[in-house]
């Protein structure tokens, strides 16, 4: 399955059906066990989150948020890039990074047209001072040389100017001109292309980073939740609230560091002084925002339900106080129950309650049926089924024991090695598939090394989302690569820089905030029980093999 997911001889979703067909025939697990993971709680949580995200998209709430933020940050190229990255990261925390990236593309296009033009060379406006003698000897449109303060500029560095005013200046020294800088037009064109390319790439990278901030926004995060519940019966609490507390600060820091790296390595102004272009871009963003009109009941209702969903997730069982879910005793609802309750309300509440006649709901089933990526749902299910078989068959335990040869390193060294290997492997395979393959293995490795398994599983999960270098690594990368017509190597250098930064931030976060949130300094009781279970199974296996060998010996 891993090879098929990397090379795609079959569609990814079709490959995900192999466990149902092959595992029972190969006597790995039964058909029931192979089918169960396809729609268990984690996948239901994923489907519910997708429906809520589609409700946000259908009412254009995400577009309103994006344009409002861009109006606030302005259109100076430096701040514009930061505004796009922060907006994309924020949206990707709540809706899938693919939809976020696709939504941002036309907005980026419109702004770039205003700032950099449509590809034609245009001179840059700059105010300079021209001596009266130059003004009197030339007409409008003549190209002249600027004399600064009565002295000739150094040879080879003299800017050329086109006179745009032929009236005698009131003051005897200077006049305003339109400057065509002594800069090679090819260089100016290259600067604009670089800014355009990096702006598009920054949007994709911000979407990938934003997906790590919440438990429901990235596939590897959901795989982590599934593996923890399957292996340890949910005893280590990995829920929406503590994951947001742990991962969101690191995501913000990673985006800010990536932005700073782009400024240092790539960012150049496409023109000398762009006040007119910036003003035009600001006007078009404001115009697009005003075209949305006042917030409708449809948008307001979706926004209220969205905020309610996040609050219910965060306070379900926050650990610093008694959560509302604890009042239900042994029937303690999980995150999937919460999101499905909100989904039902989306289908019940009318979008236009004050309109005469029958009003459609906030979201309708034909829209959901058409736009839900059912193939991704199967992909997640197939991955979960493979993880189940990996654990049941003992393969993950065996691989964990083989990796125990890394115990000559400190636990921090083991984490660094696994994180780096995972981060580069995920460039060639689906991040969910990578997480599905590796998480059961590193969980067993943690148990073998007698450290908290989450100490290895969390960095591995986050490293699966560090896919920045190749267009095929994530759907967000692919969208930007196609839309911006990038070359194959355009993502490699910035992708490598951002990969190094995000891995560094992630490792620092795991060893600081992660130790506090998930108590990573101890070998917990639930992991100790799993270790005893492994030893018991190994003993039974050895006794069984010895018993089978007795007749042969006789």
From TrEMBL:
UniProt similarity note: Belongs to the SLC13A/DASS transporter (TC 2.A.47) family. NADC subfamily.
PANTHER family found in the cross-reference section: SOLUTE CARRIER FAMILY 13 MEMBER, SOLUTE CARRIER FAMILY 13 MEMBER 2
Chief place where the protein resides: membrane
Protein name as it appears in the record: Solute carrier family 13 member 5-like isoform X2
Alphabetical keyword list: Membrane, Transmembrane, Transmembrane helix, Transport
Pfam families documented for this protein: Na_sulph_symp
Subcellular location: Membrane
Protein topology in the membrane: Multi-pass membrane protein
Chain ranges passing through the membrane: 12-30, 42-63, 79-96, 198-223, 243-267, 296-316, 336-354, 454-484, 496-518
Source organism of this protein record: Limulus polyphemus (Atlantic horseshoe crab)
